[in-house]
UniProtKB/TrEMBL annotation:
UniProt key word Cytoplasm: no
Name by which UniProt lists this protein: Lactose transport system permease protein LacF
Location relative to the cell: Cell membrane
GO cellular component, one term: plasma membrane
């Protein structure tokens, strides 16, 4: 046993050596940078980092700021809509694609294409489409419906839902592809058995197929949730956080305070709260994925 341990250390030696730069980068840049940010979130840093410890003052100020509270509310609305609607739309599209329809590759490419675009491009496209003088509203009025109006980005009460539309347009294609891969992994004998037993298709999906796709759903959930927390460029391209602060997001708040407001301490505190939100998503996922396998 003791002799076999040194041999195991030298197994796949080339791969281990090749991984050293990545490991060092992860430890120094990511882990070190994260710890540095968290530490300086307890300081009174302004334009430059300054180690003047102020305890939880930055966090108290953060949660007393209306702009931050609005950004959290928007994040909740955007996140809930994206989670529910992208899951539902992605699964429905995947189920339709799984019927071996004609020109499947063409339809799959068209639906997935928006994901290849950057959020900046997506934001600019939908800013134009939702413009009442140029986009959808103008086209519909030109067809004869003179009273038609669809301008969510110009209404502070519903502006965040305009952003949701653009996010769904870009992200649903990826969810569809992930769901389709999960559906294609289902044994065809299950479908044959359900047809022989006379089980309706919707019951087969609900009680048999969906439970079998649990790993796909968990992975998809993590991808969507991590994208929700860090959404920034879509907001900047579409609304700039407006009207007013009606579409403000935590990531934009962090950027504005760190680079625009020259208040590093406040930006560090906000980014630490974002890190906490990501950990709340990632840690349960890791426990479900790797903890269960280890017990198995």
């Amino acid at each position: 046993m003791a002799a076999s341990r040194p041999k195991s250390l030298f197994r796949n030696l080339n791969a281990k050596i090749a991984a050293i730069p990545m490991i060092i980068t992860a430890l120094v840049v990511f882990t070190g940078g994260t710890l540095w940010t968290v530490a300086y979130s307890f300081t009174k840093s302004k334009m430059l980092p300054k180690w003047k410890f102020v305890g939880f003052d930055q966090y108290e100020r953060l949660w007393d700021t209306r702009r931050w509270m609005v950004s959290i509310e928007n994040l909740f609305i955007y996140g809930l809509c994206m989670l529910v609607l992208s899951f539902v739309l992605g699964f429905i599209l995947a189920a339709l694609m799984d019927q071996k329809i004609r020109f499947e590759n063409t339809f799959r490419t068209i639906i997935l294409y928006p994901f290849a675009l950057s959020f900046i491009v997506t934001g600019l496209v939908w800013q134009w489409l939702l413009n009442p003088d140029l986009g959808v509203s103008n086209v519909v009025r030109a067809l004869g419906w003179d009273s038609f109006a669809f301008d969510p980005l110009y209404n502070a009460q519903i502006a965040i839902f305009g952003v949701v539309i653009a996010g769904l347009w870009q992200g649903t294609g990826l969810i569809m592809v992930l769901m389709l891969a999960g559906l294609r992994g289902i044994d065809q004998d299950i479908w044959k058995a359900s047809r022989v037993d006379g089980i309706p298709a919707w019951k087969t999906y609900l009680f048999i197929v969906i439970p079998m796709m649990r790993p796909v759903f968990i992975t998809t959930l993590v991808l969507i949730a991590s994208g929700i927390v860090k959404v920034y460029d879509l907001i900047v391209a579409m609304t700039g956080g407006g009207p007013g602060v009606s579409t403000e997001m935590p990531a934009k708040y962090v950027y504005d305070y760190m680079f625009g407001g020259q208040n590093l301490g406040q930006g560090f505190a906000a980014s630490t709260m974002m890190l906490l939100a990501v950990l709340i998503v990632v840690i349960p996922w890791a426990m479900l994925e790797f903890g269960g396998k280890k017990r198995g």
